[in-house]
């Protein structure tokens, strides 16, 4: 078994200490930190994500794996930053104005992080202008909007309108939340809809790799 | 802990329509006195609530109340509970919420004058305190506006006061996603119980000042969030079932502070509370699929005193506007339960058994709320000396009940969940007996950017 594969398995099983030591060993061999991320950590998270999609494991098990990956990133991030390497994609995410629900948004953030997206989480009750400012500041490739109330769906439309009218209008927008549908996504001019957190990574990648 | 014994100790007595301490309304309804009443709840279609749209918002409520009550009268229901659960701007600007209260009361009076229909209004102001993060739980504009709406609506004739309070929720969402039972117990039984005591002491005083009833709270943001996450296969159903048992400890505090029911509809933990307090309870199940899915659509009706639809948008369906259609569904469900009661105890017990047995073996969350399980969990709660110990006892009892039923072939637990029972039991074994020690442990690991311990007296 290659060391990358061993690292993937350790991350998938949520073994924090083992993941950290394997990462350290790879670094000691002079392996490029980005290669460690892409060949060791991301496949580990992808494997647990796949099990989650197939209803074999639950979010708590995914979070344990995410914590193992985080442990490795503590070693890798300074080296990546030093080399000027950033995650390939950065996404801005938030729940729209007037809405405080954040579980769905948090789950999507977790899934995207596992796929090596840089995530800027603006929290809940986010005014539309804040999405524009954050997208500009972080040079994002994607904006994700969440809403859980029928009465905050119009705020999602407003956020899309404000983004489109700004200098960030070219960015793809991914939407989701209990009352949201593909039809509503199309109606308000968003680019993608994800019915659940498990499908969000695929939907996000489809948008940013267009 | 106020309650030391059970009001209902026989599962056969934990039955629909009958509570040891029924509640009388001004219109002559006796809730828990032998009749199950429909309880209708509704919300707006997609519309932003602001000054420019508020007249359209009001028109929605005028349409809802006249259409739904007209249908209730046509179906000759013995009485109706109307629940107005506000949306956040209606609590933030209480004059808007109050105007809707008046619209609904006018609708109730008009239908009573026209057909003699008995109705009562439950008002449930949205708990906006979490709009500030970390939330101020005991002061501030959100808290003040919420209390103002309680006062004005009670003064104008809303007889049942309820809330879905949020104390402790700051930490609970993460506890659910992490499968973290100790933090769930900390959120519900330490933070939640303290906030409930603070809040319900005030709400009960408001109710008494205006001669109305403090009806009860719900751990909706805790137990139902767990239930929905479990339905989406995000968290194990056995974990959601254990969390449900613990939520009863938090919701009980409202009754310790003077609430008398009917408990709030989305409190699926209400059977446990009915067993402890003897007060009538609202429940929701299959008729609330318009709002969220659940694994206990029939079982939830087994001991209801009002039967609710949770919330439905005011949109047009083929049969009519959705609230009117749901009034009809609730009316027929209640008719069936009332007919069973009318035909005598054997018929009522047969229907109770069918409601329970059709759901209980298929899902752990349903199983822990059967009349038998509810009473076992209730016993564990009243035998405890503190809310903390009651939370642990409720969780342990739920685990033992599920484990035993699974081994005996009475409950189906999915193979990827069975190891969770042992894990949760081990976790409980590791929790300290001392509440102070537990609080210190939890404060040391809690994310203090999310909540203010001082707002809970810690």
Topology, element by element:
The complex is a heterodimer of chains A (210) and B (458).
Chain A: H1 3-12, H2 16-28, H3 33-53, H4 59-82, E1 89-95, H5 103-114, E2 117-121, H6 128-137, E3 142-146, H7 153-164, E4 173-176, H8 182-188, E5 192-193, H9 197-208
Parallel strand pairs in A: 1-2, 1-3, 3-4, 4-5
Helix pairs in contact in A: 1-2, 1-3, 2-4, 3-4, 4-5, 5-9, 6-7
Chain B: E1 18-24, E2 30-33, E3 37-41, H1 54-74, E4 80-85, H2 88-92, H3 94-115, E5 119-124, H4 141-156, E6 160-163, H5 169-178, H6 181-210, E7 213-217, H7 220-231, H8 237-256, H9 270-277, E8 282-284, E9 306-308, E10 316-317, E11 320-321, H10 322-342, H11 345-357, H12 364-367, H13 371-382, H14 387-407, H15 418-430, H16 435-445
Parallel strand pairs in B: 3-4, 3-9, 4-5, 5-6, 6-7, 8-9
Antiparallel strand pairs in B: 1-2, 10-11
Unreliable stretches of chain A, pLDDT < 50, 5 or more residues? none
Strand segment count of chain A: 5
Mean pLDDT over all positions of chain B? 97
CATH architecture of chain B: Alpha-Beta Barrel
CA(first)-CA(last) distance of chain A: 35 Å
CATH architecture of the largest domain in chain A: 3-Layer(aba) Sandwich
Strand content of chain A: 5-15%
Gyration radius of chain A, rounded: 18 Å
Largest sheet geometry of chain B: 7 strands, parallel
Short description:
The complex is a heterodimer of chains A (210) and B (458). Chain A is α/β, with parallel strands linked by helices. Chain A has helices at residues 3-12, 16-28, 33-53, 59-82, 103-114, 128-137, 153-164, 182-188, 197-208; strands at 89-95, 117-121, 142-146, 173-176, 192-193.
């Amino acid at each position: 078994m290659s060391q990358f594969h061993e690292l993937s398995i350790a991350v998938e099983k949520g073994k924090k200490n083992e993941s950290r030591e394997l990462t350290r060993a790879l670094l000691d061999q002079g392996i490029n930190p980005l290669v460690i991320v892409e060949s060791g950590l991301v496949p580990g998270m992808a494997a647990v994500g796949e099990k989650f999609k197939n209803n074999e494991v639950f979010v708590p098990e995914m979070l344990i794996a995410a914590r193992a990956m985080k442990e490795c990133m503590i070693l890798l991030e300074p080296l990546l930053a030093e080399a000027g390497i950033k995650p390939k994609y950065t996404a801005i995410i938030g729940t729209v104005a007037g809405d405080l629900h954040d579980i769905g948004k948090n789950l999507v953030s977790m899934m995207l992080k596992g796929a090596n997206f840089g995530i800027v989480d603006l929290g809940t009750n986010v005014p539309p202008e804040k999405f524009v400012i954050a997208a500009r500041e972080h040079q994002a490739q994607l904006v994700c909007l969440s809403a859980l109330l029928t009465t905050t769906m119009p705020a999602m439309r407003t956020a899309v309108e404000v983004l489109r009218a700004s200098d960030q209008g070219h960015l793809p927008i991914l939407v989701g939340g209990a009352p949201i549908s593909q039809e509503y996504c199309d109606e308000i001019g968003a680019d993608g809809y994800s019915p659940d957190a498990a499908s969000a990574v695929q939907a996000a990648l489809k948008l940013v790799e267009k | 802990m106020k309650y030391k014994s059970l009001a209902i100790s026989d599962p056969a007595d934990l039955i629909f329509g009958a509570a040891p301490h029924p509640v009388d309304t001004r219109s002559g309804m006796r809730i828990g006195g032998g009749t199950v009443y429909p309880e209708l709840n509704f919300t707006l279609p997609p519309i932003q609530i602001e000054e420019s749209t508020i007249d359209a918002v009001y028109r929605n409520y005028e349409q809802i109340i006249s259409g739904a009550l007209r249908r209730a009268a046509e179906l000759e229901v013995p009485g109706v509970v109307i629940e107005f659960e506000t949306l956040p701007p209606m609590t933030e600007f209480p004059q808007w919420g109050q105007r809707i209260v008046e619209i609904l009361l006018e609708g109730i009076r008009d239908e009573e004058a026209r057909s003699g229909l008995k109705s009562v209004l439950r008002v449930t102001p949205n708990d906006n305190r979490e709009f500030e993060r970390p939330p101020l739980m005991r002061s501030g504009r959100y808290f003040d506006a919420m209390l103002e709406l309680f006062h004005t609506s009670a003064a104008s004739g809303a007889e049942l006061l309820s809330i879905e309070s949020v104390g402790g929720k700051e930490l609970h969402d993460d506890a659910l996603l992490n499968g973290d039972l100790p933090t769930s117990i900390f959120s519900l039984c330490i933070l939640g119980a303290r906030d409930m005591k603070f809040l319900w002491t005030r709400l009960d005083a408001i109710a008494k000042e205006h001669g109305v009833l403090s009806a009860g709270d719900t751990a909706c943001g805790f137990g139902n969030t767990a239930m929905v996450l479990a339905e989406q296969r995000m968290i194990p159903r056995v974990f959601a079932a254990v969390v449900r048992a613990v939520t009863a400890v938090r919701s009980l505090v409202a009754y310790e502070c003077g609430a008398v029911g009917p408990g709030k509809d989305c409190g699926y933990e209400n059977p446990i509370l009915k067993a402890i307090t003897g007060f009538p309870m609202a429940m929701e199940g299959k008729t609330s699929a318009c709002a969220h899915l659940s694994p206990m659509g029939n079982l939830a009706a087994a001991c209801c005193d009002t039967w609710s639809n949770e919330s439905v948008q005011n949109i047009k369906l083929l049969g009519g506007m959705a609230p009117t259609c749901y009034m009809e569904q609730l009316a027929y469900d209640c008719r069936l339960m009332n007919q069973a009661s009318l035909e005598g105890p054997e018929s009522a017990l047969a229907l109770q058994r069918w409601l329970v047995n059709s759901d209980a073996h298929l899902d752990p969350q349903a199983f822990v709320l059967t009349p038998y399980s509810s009473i076992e969990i209730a016993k564990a709660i009243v035998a405890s000396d503190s809310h903390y110990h009651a939370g642990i006892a409720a969780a342990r009892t739920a685990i033992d009940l599920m484990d035993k039923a699974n081994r005996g072939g009475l409950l189906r637990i999915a193979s990827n969940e069975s190891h969770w029972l042992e894990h949760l039991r081990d976790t409980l074994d590791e929790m300290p007996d001392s509440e102070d020690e537990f609080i210190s442990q939890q404060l040391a690991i809690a994310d203090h950017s999310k909540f203010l311990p001082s707002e809970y007296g810690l």
